[in-house]
Amino acid sequence: MTDAITRAYRAEWARVVAALTRRFGDLDIAEEAAAEAFATAVERWPADGVPPNPGGWLTITATRRAIDRLRRESRRDDKQKEAQLMYAVEPPDETGVVDDERLRLIFTCCHPALAPETRVALTLRMVGGLTVSEIARAFLVQETAMGQRITRAKAKIKTARIPYRVPAAADLPARVSGVLSVLFLVFNEGYLATGPDTDPIRHDLTAEAIRLTRLIRALLPADGEVAGLLALMLMTEARGTARVTAGGELVPLGEQDRGAWDRALIAEGHRLVRERLAAGVAPGRYQILAAINAVHTSAPDVGATDWSQVVALYDQLVRLDPSPIVALNRAVAVAELDGPEVALAIIDRLTERLAGYHAFHATRAEFLRRLGRVQHSRAAYDKAIELAGNTAETTYLTRRRDQLAA
Predict the structure, then answer these.
(1) Residue 351: HSE in the Cβ half-sphere, 13 Å Cα cutoff
(2) N or C end: fewer C-beta atoms under 10 angstroms in the chain?
């Protein structure tokens, strides 16, 4: 029964929140009522059984909870208002060019009146259904700070009376950047879940991110970054079945069975990359990341990877996105081209900014291992294991650390 409720949460959370937001125009009411509906399901479904239409059951239950809350908060004895709450029809359809309820909710959460990082965090919570803890890990910030950020975002929407409207076609290009950031982080959470109590790979999140990105691609076929993000997702998703062993251990790219990769997804991703190259327009962040993945997925084995091209692409990316995580990923390619000593010197300069990021310590442990600095490598593995949340990654890191004793 727990599995059934978990599946329902992953499949229906965004739909329920979107339906209630559209009807009541209040994110707080929508989120609280949706949470109460799922809590009710936890109580009732074990005894009553899973309903034939879980999404419909949850939406109706959540709507009733929202109406109850509005009744409690109402200070006026207004029979007409109560009748509207009980029998109101759905508000007029203003879908415009966006015909998917969850995609509409993403666009409304990504309103330009909110700071970019706030838009992403709010949408991950309201649409992706990620917990505050998962979102905090994705942003490398404390959980309490992330909770406050989301709370302030909802308060600003309410006090500023930001309308929940679908953007017109002319407004879509200006709004798409924040939406792509959200979808990228939703996909990443599915690709390598940060929580210790979830599946290592959440295909529900990766599939939903791809589905929504395809919709945006249909809306904005000339947008290079939309095409780049879709290509990146497809080539990454293609490796999904080879990324975790039957025993639940992460398999790094260099050790994966490339025969298990989904060649159809890779071919589609490669076509999108070639289309963008043929357009002759300077690439953005997602297009460069897609090109890097195209190099990796073109090689028949890790030894045939064109690392000089990978480093050159990362050099382009650093100019657009000089973040420490991009620098860390570039160092991995530098290690293959110029050796681990050169790469270690690069990432050691990132220590202060990435001290709480498990992948920094895992990468450092690998470089130290290759240099024969066993004790330092073990200490770095210990720190990576301490910070890692994904069980498959923890299992892999633990095995690598324990091998040092041999």
Answers:
(1) 8
(2) C
